[in-house]
């Protein structure tokens, strides 16, 4: 199953939510966590991940910390206070989108009756 086009629109939300749950992560760790949580169904490429991380950092939603680990330099990403607020905004936005998509694909669906 190819989710690449669907993931592009949700990548920032995925990153922010993972960082909220894990405090700080490095890029490869993010890709592996997504792969693990989706049983390999969703794979985030470095080519998609790092531009999204850099944009979130430029927007003031992430902060970075560089550490030396086993003779390698690792760049860890963490949420800023604005990033923590943005997680809630993005999750509400995504929830609204999913509900609207359900209404389109299944007009008899009613989220209040689950």
UniProtKB/TrEMBL annotation:
Ranges in a coiled coil: none
Signal peptide start-end: none
Source taxon at top rank: Bacteria
Pfam families per UniProt: PadR
Domain Transcription regulator PadR N-terminal: from-to ranges: 15-87
PANTHER family: PADR-FAMILY TRANSCRIPTIONAL REGULATOR (PTHR33169), TRANSCRIPTIONAL REGULATOR RV3488 (PTHR33169:SF14)
Name of the molecule in the record: PadR family transcriptional regulator
UniProt organism field: Aquiflexum gelatinilyticum
Biological classification of the source: Bacteria, Pseudomonadati, Bacteroidota, Cytophagia, Cytophagales
